[in-house]
Structures are given as structure tokens and as C-alpha cells.
Amino acid sequence: MKAIFSIITICTLVAGNVSAQTRQVYDAYGAVGLVGSWTIHAAAPGTKGNTVELTVVNGSRTSAFEDVHIRIARHSLHLTFASNEQAIRSIPPARNAAVTLAFDVARSAPVNVQDTLEFLITDNSGLIWTKSVIIRYTGPTVFALDQNFPNPFNPSTTIQYQLPVESRVSLKLYDMLGREVATLVNEDRPAGYHEVRWIASNAASGVYFYRLEAQPLNGGNRFQSVRRLMVLK
After folding, report:
1. Can you give the pTM of this predicted structure?
2. What does the alpha-carbon distance between residue 203 and residue 230 come to, in Å, rounded to a whole number?
3. Exposed, middle or buried by CB within 10 Å (0-12, 13-18, 19+), for 183?
4. Which pLDDT score is estimated for 23?
5. Which burial class, exposed, middle or buried, applies to 210 when counting CB atoms under 10 A from its CB (0-12, 13-18, 19+)?
């Protein structure tokens, strides 16, 4: 299940006196923890369409805020934003306006690791305000071997799998007669989402099978799964 979530933050900007207040935040799974006064928000590697919604409140009762810009000042390389900046033309006195920034999380993001998003908010008067949001990349809870893509394929395909715990992993390919064609993985791998590419340049057209075996290093039960793929030349 994709961990698509929205973070809603209210920033109160008052000319000459910058203050801030934070509204309760919810995501698809709820807040997953606290670090001091910080809420940690969960996002799973490989998810797309996650959003951060920032609501800027004009705390002045007499003056409008003009040309407000919300920019991403710092973010992890594991996050890709559709746009790094949004603008609000004007916020009337005692009113608010919101912007939404959409982002994807790379499948390679390390699980159970925290990253910080930092936003810079400015207006035409020179007022500057920053807001930080902590995101933790959540790991899988079960073993799984996904269907390769593309399929059928020529000459290469990608196979993805997930591990809830660090495991000794073997991923091998076999032909229809059960003969081993290739070993794609044969090593210890950390918990998380993984993928490997098979280039079948030297393989004949036909049906093949790929088999994943994962033995948890903590001594848990071995996981095994087999799927079929097709080389079409």
C-alpha cells in the first residue's frame, strides 16, 4: 500500500515579529512518533504523489502580504519534487492561503532512516521564515517477490523484492528444464526495497523462472517465492 500523506502546517507571519503555530498533522497512517516537539511523518520508499501542504496565515489585521514565495531550501536526494517553489500573489489581512508541493520517494531510500525537509517562506518586504518537517522512510513488514517488468521483454527486465529484516538472499533464474541460467543475487541484504536488472542478451526466447530465497539473519523462517517471466526476441 502506498504511503501517500499530506502535511499541513500553519505559519503566522506578522511584519516585524515572526511567529509560528503548527496545526495538528495527519497522514494515511497517522503520526508515527515524536522527536522533542517534532512530529515524524511516515513515507514508504517507491511511493508517488506524496504531498506537503503549507498554509500561510497573515497575522496582520491591516496589511496584506504580497508576492509570498514558498521554496524548498533543503531535501534529501531520495525525494523528487514536481516543483521546488510555489507562489502566492497576495494574502489579505487576517486571511490565509495554501500551497501544495508534490513529491515522490525513491525506492532506494534507506528504511527506518529520517530525513528533514526545510522550507523557506519569503515576501516582498524581506520577511523570511523557515519550517522543517521530519520524514521517516518506513520499511516493508513482509517478504515479497514482485512480477518483473517489462514482461515479456527484450533484452532487459527489472525484478523487485522486499525484505522486512536483514537476510541472506539468493535470486536465481532457471529455464523450463530447471537448469540454472543466472545468479542475480547471492549475498546478505539489508531490510528494505530492492531491485535487480537482468540483461538476457544471450538467452533464447522462451519462458524462464526466477526464484527468491531469503533467510533472515536473526534466525527467522526462510522465505521462498517463484515467478515466471518471458524473453521475446
Report:
1. 0.76
2. 11
3. exposed
4. 32
5. buried
Please report, for the chain, the start and end positions of each structural domain, with discontinuous segments joined by +: 6-137, 144-231
Q: What distance in Å separates the CA atoms of residue 117 and residue 22, rounded to the nearest whole number? A: 16
Tell whether domain 144-231 is in CATH 2.60.40.2550: yes
- Shared fold status for 6-137 and 144-231: yes
Cell of 145: 517477490
Rounded to whole angstroms, how far apart are CA atoms 110 and 78? 9
For residue 223, the one-letter residue type is F
Spatial separation of the C-alpha atoms in residues 205 and 135, rounded to whole Å = 45
Instruction: Render pLDDT for 131-179 as a digit per residue (tens, 0 to 9).
Output: 888 889 999 999 999 999 999 999 999 999 999 999 999 999 999 999 9
List helix spans (H) across the chain: none
pLDDT in tens, 7-57: 444 455 544 333 333 333 323 323 333 333 457 788 889 988 888 888 888
Fold of 6-137: Immunoglobulin-like (2.60.40)
Beta strand 50-58 with 6-14 is: parallel
**Residue-averaged pLDDT of the chain:** 83
Query: How far is residue 53 from each of residues 15, 18, 25, 56, 172, measured CA to CA in Å?
Result: 23, 20, 10, 10, 44
Give the cell for residue 3.
504511503
